[in-house]
């Protein structure tokens, strides 16, 4: 008998730093959500870690208004021996979601084997369906080339000037370089946290108040 989805996904998370060569091919949504890290979220799905995932706060005022756009930051790390890629993203919080490199739309985010995806990639939520304020959440569905699809609850960050001095998410400060070993401490940290178990599901706010 096959283990439940969550068990399989958690097992994959725990085995991530061992760099198993098996790569998932299913496209059904499989989610391992780690504990909230204040202003960001992270998850491990198959051999891909999604780190520092957050909606950037409004530049002016305290709300990202309905009908406007919002940028989503993220870091993607591939611990497999095969290349992967982020192909598309959708969200009920927006009419569409664009993948961009700096400011130019692109078709995908390459995630080379044993590497962190190149800097400069982000997501843009276009046509917000409701106001978004710091502390609220949106749900994103990320579709990968090889890893199973991921549905993740993502916080809207608090503006930097009102954050506590201590970082809420110390997992990644610099991108990983090279293959295996050096530069992958951030993934091992996420996997260690993954082994502690799933956080309890909470009510997700797709918009503001």
What does this structure look like?
- This protein is mainly beta and 209 residues long.
- The protein contains two helices and eleven strands.
- The chain has helices at 5-15, 185-194; strands at residues 41-45, 48-55, 70-78, 84-90, 94-101, 104-105, 109-111, 115-116, 121-128, 137-144, 150-155.
- It is globular and about 45 Å long.
- The N and C termini lie far apart (45 Å).
What does the radius of gyration come to? 16 Å
Q: What string gives the helices and strands in order?
A: HEEEEEEEEEEEH
Residue ranges: pLDDT <50 for 5 or more in a row?
1-35, 164-184, 197-205
Amino-to-carboxy terminus distance: 45 Å
Percent in strands: 25-35%
Class computed from helices, strands and strand pairing: mainly beta
Instruction: Please tally the helical runs, counting DSSP H or I stretches of 4 or more residues.
Output: 2
Key traits:
four-stranded antiparallel sheet, 2 helices, seven-stranded antiparallel sheet, 209 residues, mainly beta
Quick rundown:
By secondary structure, this protein is mostly beta strands. 10% of the residues lie in helices and 32% in strands.
Describe the protein's topology:
Layout (H helix, E strand, L loop, with lengths): L4 H11 L25 E5 L2 E8 L14 E9 L5 E7 L3 E8 L2 E2 L3 E3 L3 E2 L4 E8 L8 E8 L5 E6 L29 H10 L15
Antiparallel strand pairs: 1-2, 2-3, 3-8, 3-9, 4-7, 4-10, 5-6, 5-9, 10-11
